[in-house]
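Good day; I would like, with your permission, to put a structural problem before you. What I wish to show you is a protein chain and, alongside it, a tokenised description of its three-dimensional fold. I would ask you to consider whether the tokens describe a fold that such a sequence might reasonably adopt. You will find the record immediately after this paragraph:
***
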Amino acid sequence: VQLQASGGGLVQAGGSLRLSCAASKKIFGAIVLGWYRQAPGKDRELVASMTRDGNINYADSVKGRFTISRDNEKDTLYLQMNSLAPEDTAVYYCKIRWGSNYWGQGTQVTVSS
């Protein structure tokens, strides 16, 4: 199983980006789908997650600004990020669990002030 994350880049504070995570396996049956991020010198942290039965959770720091979604037809997970701030700068990873966990390769998001 491969997860291909994309959509990162350099954006000014207040801007938006949409991350994509394309899976080589059908995501319809995935147990949990999520986005994580890791800033320099910090631990990897959960940003947003979505369970098979539709429960969605967000880190407090991104609530109201980020939206996780999925397209089962395209087997793709998304993270819409609005009102970006410099503290959102990190490498963003997608993770999908069917039986085991699978990670994408990470995509860099840099927010300039």
Remarks:
- DSSP finds no helices and eleven strands in the chain.
- Residues 38 and 83 are 19 Å apart (CA to CA).
- The mean pLDDT is 97.
- The radius of gyration is 13 Å.
